[in-house]
Amino acid sequence: QVQFVESGGGLVQPGGSLRLSCAASGFLFRLYGMMWYRQSPGKERNLVAIISRGGDTATYADSVKGRFTISRDNGKHTVYLQMNSLKPEDTAVYYCKVNSSSSAFATWGQGTQVTVSS
């Protein structure tokens, strides 16, 4: 079945960097665009970035534009999120997901916690 395993989160000081990874399985990874979402306590889950299936096109939320970079390795079935110049408001649980409305991709992984604090 479709599975996502997110990793790479942690505690970082403001201005620091982290690189998140999401290992996907259970589907033909190279055929689908991928997305990163995040959810802060008490708030809705929000879209952070999208990458095309070939990795040549990326779109970002205004709040992270210029600081975050999404990338992918189709050979490793993995999507990444490089996060630089982190701010306290970036604190959230980060999740990856397939860019598809199909019910086959409705499940979420466990996410990875990112905490930005001094």
Any overview of this molecule?
This protein has strands spanning about 5, 10, 20-25, 35-40, 45-50, 60, 70-75, 80-85, 90-100, 110-115. It has about 120 residues and is mainly beta. Strands 2-10-9-4-5-6 form a six-stranded mixed beta sheet, with no helix packed on it. Strands 1-3-8-7 form a four-stranded antiparallel beta sheet, with no helix packed on it. A hairpin with a 5-residue loop joins strand 4 and strand 5. The model has no long low-confidence stretch (mean pLDDT about 95).
What can be said about this structure in brief?
Helices cover 0% and strands 47% of the residues. It has strands at residues 3-7, 10-12, 18-25, 34-39, 45-51, 58-60, 68-73, 78-83, 92-98, 112-116.
Q: What is the tally of beta strands?
A: 10
Strand-residue fraction?
Answer: over 45%
Contiguous runs where pLDDT drops below 50 for at least 5 residues: none
Alpha-beta content class: mainly beta
Describe the largest sheet.
6 strands, mixed
How far the N terminus sits from the C terminus, by CA atoms, comes to: 40 Å
Cα Rg: 13 Å
Q: What helical percentage do the residues reach?
A: under 10%
Shape: globular
From the structure provided, what is the oligomeric state, counting identical versus distinct chains?
A: single chain
Q: How many individual helices? A: 0
What is the mean predicted local confidence, pLDDT? 96
Element-by-element helix/strand order: EEEEEEEEEE
Strand neighbour order, sheet with most strands:
2-10-9-4-5-6
